[in-house]
Amino acid sequence: MEWYEIEHVRAVDDKFRAKYAFKPSSSIFAKPIIPNDANVVFKEYKILSHRTYEEEAEREYFAGEAWTKRLFLRFFGEEMYALDWYHEAYRFLVDSEYPRGEFGDWYVPYLPDGDYYFFLNMEMDLAWLSHPWRKTVTVVGAELVDYIETNGCPFLK
């Protein structure tokens, strides 16, 4: 397994908070997660939900995992962070097998399911930030936003 749990989470948390305006909240009025630097390109996308059957939903979810991993491979470099807010934080090799939890999804899922999940390159200037209460993913970095705007994403609008 090429995922390593980060022991000194405080340093990673401090680095994240220096780059992003983030105030965890369970309110439906929670604020979006945005870069602190006003010059950084980002866009918040709504998560599409058009699943009707459990089997179809599972198929779409795993297809979304594959799409997201291809995006990470294309833009994020060799190594990146996966943060499960208030839980574990990992460093991992992008081109490795992603460990799975009890329901078969990644330890840190690419879409929110009640927790905040963040995927960031090592410099934290490219990011995939999922927000459970807003039901959104904020994509940070001009090249990521441009790629999604040009090519679309099967589960974001």
UniProtKB/TrEMBL annotation:
<dbReference type="InterPro" id="IPR020323">
    <property type="entry name" value="DUF2716"/>
</dbReference>
<protein>
    <recommendedName>
        <fullName>DUF2716 domain-containing protein</fullName>
    </recommendedName>
</protein>
<dbReference type="Pfam" id="PF10898">
    <property type="entry name" value="DUF2716"/>
</dbReference>
